[in-house]
Amino acid sequence: MTNYALCRSAVTLAVLVSWSLVHAQGASNSRVASREATSHTPGSWACWPDDWSPWCRDDGDAFISEIAMVSSSDGWAISGAGTIFRWDGRVWNIADRATSRQLYGIAMVSREDGWIVGDDGLIVRWNGQRWLRFRSPVDDRDLLSVSMITTNDGWIVGKGGTILHWNGTDWTSQESPTIDNLQSIDMVATNDGWAVGIDGDIIHWDGTRWTKSPPVETVGLPPPLNSVSMVSKDDGWAVSWIGIVIRWDGQTWTIQDRLLEDTGQLPGSWLSVSMTSSNSGWITGTGGTILRWDGQMWRYLPTPTTDGLSAIAPVSDDDAWAAGGWGTILHWDGQNWSLYNSLPQDRLNSVDMTSADDGWAVGNTGRLIHWDGSSWTVEPSITQQVLHDVAMLSRVEGWAVGDNGTVLNWDGKSWRVIESPTDNALASVEMVARTDGWAVGTGGAMIHWNGSRWQLESAHTTDETLLSVDMANADEGWAVGTSGTILRWHDHRWQVQPSPTSDVLTSVAATSPSDAWAVGQAGRIIHWDGGAWRSVESPTARGLWGISMVSPNEGWAVGEVGTIVRWNGERWSLYRSSVQAYFGIDMVSATDGWIVGSHGVIVRWFGVRPSAQPTTTLLPPATDLPIPTPVSSPSTTPIPHWEVFIPLVVRQ
After folding, report:
1. Among 23, 525, 546, 642, which one has the highest count of C-beta atoms within 10 angstroms of its own C-beta?
2. Domain containing 111: what range?
3. pLDDT tens-digit readout, 423-436
């Protein structure tokens, strides 16, 4: 993490994040599998191209919690955000996203029959065509794991020692030997099965009743157990998040630390175990850790991720899937684990569009991403410096600025580094014409482009950090920054202007010389009416980090915790809050725009409805809708929406 000395101590961490002076980890260069874009319902911000974004929900965690494979060409995954994915042998796609509850466990009996469990007693069944909610005997306890023996026999466990049994007709509550949370269950047969719990509980089903097994012998308290997988009545494994692995030999459960390959490092936190035979099995954990059982030893295998892996589902010895944090999905081909999909780890700080089919986004570690009208392409980085802002004049000319005075120029074919007259971090750039542009940054740095080179502005107006600059035209413009600083470009010079706030101002947008807006810390919104800057009532207290105005009567601002606010010509209203932080926004028109943010998230605004679009959306305020999602149907009422878009191509 890099903090700049000239940033005042009063600037909060959230604001430091907002103008990108925090370095994130580098992203993987793996190619993300291409997927065909689904049709989108206009009228709100939601997920694009195929709603592959559990992390954009505001009501769930950004992780895939469980996977269940029916075959090499059919499988399912669920997320903590209530999203259900399906593998069709070629790609993972959204199958359903009509619940706001977190989903924890899934078990498939066949292609035509399966079950999912989740928050507040949620039970959902797959009937071969769609997921339908099923009657649950509990509504006050989360259900965490499900295991099916046959279509007519299955079990569910959950919080508070909850145990439910399926008899082919109904789920019914069963007597439990514990009141502690049961995290995982795996049934061997109708008369044999095991469940484990977070307080070290191990319970056994003998065909008549559930009983507690003696705790594992260890120093201190029994280890908390996350996951259990049985090979047979005489062989099974369970794992703990404190790095302990235990095994059932038909008589007792014992710790098996000696069977873990010695790498000279402390064991990780184990999250999931899945066995295919006595000689083959898998364990996943934090930090992207995967272990494989070869019948003699658990051995570490290299993986292309550092995200926690909460689930693993082997199909065969040469076909398996693992998944976890930030939507990460890995595939095993018998030789290596490869990255199928994950969010780019580099945050994106700014986006600027020249048209509906051309634009750029920039971010940490020199990230450059191009939009060509159908997909975002991650371009090779020519710098490792954080890029804070991008300004495009046309398809063949644009500029990007960043840390240590970095300035890049786009000539229509490639990006190149341009000599800069400052070492200060440059937070914002604005181009008026090919021979006229401005960039601002820390310590009040201001540099001007005259068509041939960048030069320091001779009149040093302020020592405050300037975070944003926007020009109404060549003769009128604004720059804003820390301590509520406002500078005006007028009469061919920059002058400090009276400010109605001492809050940090992070972004400014001018529609004309007599109309401009600025946003900032704690939801601050101020307006220029041609005579003075005045504070305007804000619908949020969360930091706002980017603003884009379509006209004096329409505009958007974005910020922390996925906050999106909208101006309708009369007032600002809260449109949506989500998981990811949003740092940049650019509106192409009233019906087309883009947002970028943390973990590489990209969100698009669809404001015009094509014919025959689905009527359900993701990012208008979510409600707990019946499953299944209503089928696509024509609609004549526009429902604009924002949709999350994931970069599909990594250009090497």
Report:
1. 642
2. 101-212
3. 999 999 999 999 99
